[in-house]
Design goal:
By secondary structure, the chain is α/β, with parallel strands linked by helices. It folds into two domains: 159 residues, Alpha-Beta Complex (Quinone Oxidoreductase, Chain A, domain 1); 151 residues, Rossmann fold (3-Layer(aba) Sandwich), CATH 3.40.50. Helices cover 24% and strands 26% of the residues. The protein contains nine helices and 16 strands. Strands 4, 5, 6, 7, 8, 15 and 16 form a seven-stranded mixed beta sheet that branches. Strand 10, helix 4 and strand 11 form a beta-alpha-beta unit. The structure holds NADP nicotinamide-adenine-dinucleotide phosphate (NAP).
């Protein structure tokens, strides 16, 4: 990672930001990113200046590093990355958002953000700490909620399987599946520590360490009766194993496919898709952005569970914007348990 400095007057506020230095082929490296210090511009009428305190680190950003059409535009070479962040308003030219408010917005990957006040949402830090609005009360929690209520709805007595189960979405999804009436909840994660944690901390009945042996065999042992619902964050062999284990009429929420994000050639699809016909399965994709209308409902439910201690969450916190690229490389290889975050406050 290279560091570049712009010339600024002494009175200027500086902001470090992470830019895309090169488009990765395969796995990104430290050289994919550069840290640049810039002067923070004065806000225009209707704008606010936010000192970011936390920023979210998300696997989907890998797709935006490629120059390829997708549901969200690619990052521009040489420009700052963006993504979900929360922070405190330090200057405002908007009547709607006062100085001192804590807001969530989409201009992360920089210490200070200047944006239209209408693009920021004031969050209630009395309900939960600001960082929760990037995890369980943010899009990751909402992803689990939409997946298991709208896309592959959990019904009373269902057997539910969740991949990347110790991650941000997965650690919430297991506990949610139980609340929605699942009779058995099975999670998969990489390594014995994470697998143990699924059961001790995140409400799973049993755990699969996908690195420890055959996924098919471990899934058959955990659910000899088969599974009804699968939340897929991984794709590849996880999706194949889940299709194989599905009971008739089962539902699969296609949420992510992290095992393929760094692929340099097209990853093979599941070779057992005919079973989806034979078992009359429903495989349905989702983008959380289509479910933002569920935010009030989800936050209302989840905040209550957080307050009474019945919903357990975890964060993996990396300190300082300089470490943000390492946090991204980390989330892609499983360095996180729960939500991967960068803390920017002093
Ligand atoms: P996360 O689960 O907190 O972090 C990603 C995890 O993926 C890592 O911790 C790692 O855990 C696991 N992983 C990495 N490579 C893997 C592989 N080859 N096989 C199996 N597991 C692997 O991330 P998240 O933010 O909650 O996102 C989870 C998934 O949901 C991602 O695919 C993401 O793109 C997707 N997502 C989709 C939407 C949507 O709107 N559709 C919204 C949010 C997230 P281990 O240590 O267990 O390997």
């Amino acid at each position: 990672m290279s560091t570049q400095q712009t010339t600024v007057t002494p009175a200027t506020t500086f902001s470090a930001e992470v830019r895309l230095a090169s488009r990765p082929v395969g796995s990104p490296t430290a050289d994919t990113f550069e840290l640049v210090r810039t002067a923070v511009p004065e806000p225009a009428e209707g704008e606010i200046v936010v000192r970011n305190t936390w920023m979210s680190v998300d696997p989907y950003m890998r797709g935006r590093m490629d120059d390829a059409p997708s549901y969200i535009p690619p990052f521009e070479l040489g420009a700052a990355l963006d993504g979900s962040a929360v922070g405190v308003v330090v200057a405002s030219r908007s009547d709607a958002v006062p100085v001192g408010a804590t807001v969530s917005h989409f201009l992360g990957w920089r210490e200070y953000a200047v944006l239209d006040a209408a693009a920021a949402a004031v969050v209630d830090t009395g309900l939960a700490p600001a960082s929760a609005y990037l995890g369980v009360l943010g899009t990751t929690g909402l992803t689990a909620y939409a997946a298991l209520t709208e896309i592959a709805p959990v019904r009373e007595g269902d057997v539910v399987f969740v991949s990347a189960a110790a991650g941000a979405v997965g650690s919430v999804a297991g506990q949610l599946a139980r609340r929605l009436g699942a009779s058995k909840v099975i999670g998969s994660a990489g390594g014995p520590e994470k697998a143990a944690k699924l059961v001790t901390d995140f409400g799973y009945d049993s755990a699969i360490d996908y690195r420890a042996g055959s996924l098919d065999e471990q899934l058959a042992a955990a659910a000899p009766e088969g599974i009804d619902v699968y939340l897929d964050s991984v794709g590849g062999n996880h999706l194949r194993a889940a299709i194989g284990a599905m009971r008739t009429g089962g539902r699969i929420a296609l949420v992510g496919a992290i095992s393929t994000y760094n692929a340099t050639s097209p990853a093979p699809g599941p070779d057992n898709l005919f079973q989806a016909a034979a078992k009359e399965l429903n495989l349905r994709g989702m983008l959380v952005s289509s479910y933002f209308h569920l935010f009030p409902e989800w936050i209302g439910r989840a905040a209550g569970w957080l307050a009474d201690g019945s919903l357990r969450t975890e964060q993996t916190v990396v300190e300082g914007i300089e470490q943000a690229p390492a946090a991204f490389l980390g989330v892609m290889r499983g360095a996180n348990t729960g939500k991967m975050l960068v803390r920017l406050e002093g």
